[in-house]
Structures are given as C-alpha cells and as structure tokens.
Amino acid sequence: MRIFIEKILPKILSYSEKLDKLTVLIDEPWVVNDDSQKFTKFIFRKDNSLLISDNGSVTLGKWDLLNKANSILLEFNNSLKLYNHGFLDEAVLILKIDGGSDYFVLVNQNKIPNLDLENYLESKYVNKQDGINYRTKQSLTPKSRAKINSDKGEIIIEYFSSPNMPSKGDFVLQNGKNAPNGKYKIDSMFFIHVFNGEIEKTSMF
Q: What is the distance between the alpha carbons of residues 145 and 161, in angstroms, rounded to a whole number?
C-alpha cells in the first residue's frame, strides 16, 4: 500500500480538499485501509469525539484539527499521534505520520462500498489524465479538438459529442493537463463549467 500511495499522490494532489473541509469529514464511516484483516471504522463527530469500531466493538477517542500546520491530532487506543495532510476527497483520506514515512489511509464506506482504494483513485484521477474515460476505461478518440481563449487563459477542448460545440463530458485541457475546476468564459455570452477535466455543464451566464 505504501508504494502505491507514494506513486499516486503526486498525480492527484491538485484534486485534494483541505483538511478543514468538515462537511466531507464529519459523521462519515471511514474504514482503515491497510494490509491487516481487521475491520476498523472511524467516525469523526462534530464535538471532536472519535468513535472507533473494531469489528463492532466500539471505543472512544478524540480528534483535533491544527489548521496552520495542515495536520490532525488523533487520540485512540491510548495513543496520541500527529498526522499531516496527504489527500482528501469525499471518498478517501490519506494522512502521513508527522516526521515519519508511514501512511494512515481511510476509505469512506458510503462512497466506496467495496473499499477498493486503488481502483477508485486510478479510475477517477489517473486514467482520466491519460485520456481514458474513467467510466468505461476505454480509449477515446475525440471527434475534434480546438484551442480556445477563455477568461482563464488558453484551453483545449476535445469534443466527443458535437464537433466544435462544447457539451457535457467533453475533455478540457490546459498546459497539457486537465484544466483546473471552475467556470470558464469562452465568448461574450457562453460559459463552460469544468470538473475533473470534463465539461460538467454549459451556461449562458
């Protein structure tokens, strides 16, 4: 697991939320992803209490965010440990022990019921960057490509549905990579909304 995390982190860091994205973190079933056969679940509560379920047996702990240090303090199993932010989205939390090389990886059971962390990260982020549609994992050939001057700089749109007409699902690139998430004005009235390198929707405002 450590080797996989070290290889993939540089490719996905730009998609990470900050640790203070509490709506992602709180009251979700975060399952420890490691090489053991134990099933350990963490639930972060609003009052900074921490519920830890080991195969159904529950103990209590505490958690505290250290925003300026970009770290989180976890107290459980009679141990107090400081972890630094590695990666966070709605389904995955990757932490790294402060001053060490060990990772602490949690997977949201609601978002990834089979707990297949590797497939989730590769399909959602890495394969997409390589020009592979993560929903089908099939190589795609765009019908056309166009360079466009947007209000956020030059972008390239790869059209898969209607040639030269931006549509939901078309890829958007900037400097050879997925364009950053956001709203792009591409002419006097027309906008595209980009998420994870794809057009999520188009609008006239």
A: 12
Contact yes or no for 85/70 (Cβ under 8 A) = yes
What are the pLDDT digits (tens) for 91-114? Answer: 999 999 999 999 999 999 999 999
Confidence (pTM):
0.63
Instruction: Round to whole Å and give the CA distance between 117 and 93.
Output: 10
SS3 assignment, position 123:
helix
Minimum mean pLDDT range among 18-22, 36-40, 62-66, 182-186: 36-40
CA distance 37 to 49: 25
Q: Which domains does the chain have, with CATH numbers?
A: 2-129 (2.40.128.640), 141-203 (no CATH)
Q: Read off the pLDDT of residues 136-188 as tens digits, 9 standing for 90 and up.
A: 434 467 788 899 999 999 999 988 877 788 988 888 999 888 899 999 999 88
CB contact at 8 A, 171 and 142: yes
Q: Give the whole-angstrom CA distance, residue 111 versus residue 92.
A: 9
What would the DSSP string read from start to end of 103-125?
A: EEEEEETTT-TT--HHHHHIIII
